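Request: Could I get any protein with tokenized structure?
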Amino acid sequence: MTSEITLFVNPTAGRGRGARAAQPAASALRAAGFSVRTVLGENARDALTRARAAVAAGTGALVAVGGDGMAGLALQAVAGTDTPLGLVAVGTGNDFARSLGLPVRDPAAAGRVVAGALKEGRLRDIDLGRVGGTWFGTVLASGFDSRVNDRGNRMRWPTGRFKYDLAMLAELAAFKPFPYRITLDDGEVREIEATLVAVGNGSSYGGGMQICADADLTDGLFDITVVGACGRASLLRVFPQVYKGTHLSHPMVSTYRAAKVELAAEGITGYADGEPLGPLPLVAECVRGAVRVAGP
């Protein structure tokens, strides 16, 4: 592996934590003997173009500094290649970094872990989800939670995470289950009323909500969590259990495992790694060993 490492930085992540995190991360990599080149972009498209160019030019690793959005962008550059991915997670959710056992919101510590893994060859291949030409590392979300995202993204005020809390309250006020058609790779079609359907390559989304708590990044399968039809009161009772993953044993929750799944529901947007994929229907497939990561 070449000693030149590309630092892929989102300066706006975590209200400016991305810019501040770049320096200690770069220092940790240089202390381990690596030469560091920093890639910034004028926007997401430009940043991805630059990251892909670095991978094509043979960079020793791509180390993304930012949140889950930046990690997701980095995946588009390294998936399907032999270039290792490192993460210095300083965003709001940081679910992908957590799933890899990496430090979060501690750029110096994360930089040291990634640098040590690269230097010592502690690399492993993990699965990714893919919808069309888009890769994701954590969860494809649809249903109530994606409706909250839709509403929050339309709101100009307030800013920050609070607007999504308000969006959740608004969606709860108008809440009703959605008719879904779910087709797994066994070919059986399941037509159900569901509150949400989450397709997990990783176990969590939303900053630690263990929606697909038993997901394994190396088994070649998605864990699919279906929260069935329920009222507002039931949803509010079950919701806190998601943070510990204990919701999976609730009678209104069903789980499946599959390497491929098609989700169809009217008026529902799919989100993966917190970013919109587009309206359902969507087909997701789990690709075994699609990316090489540096970490514990």
Summary: The two ends are 19 Å apart (CA to CA).
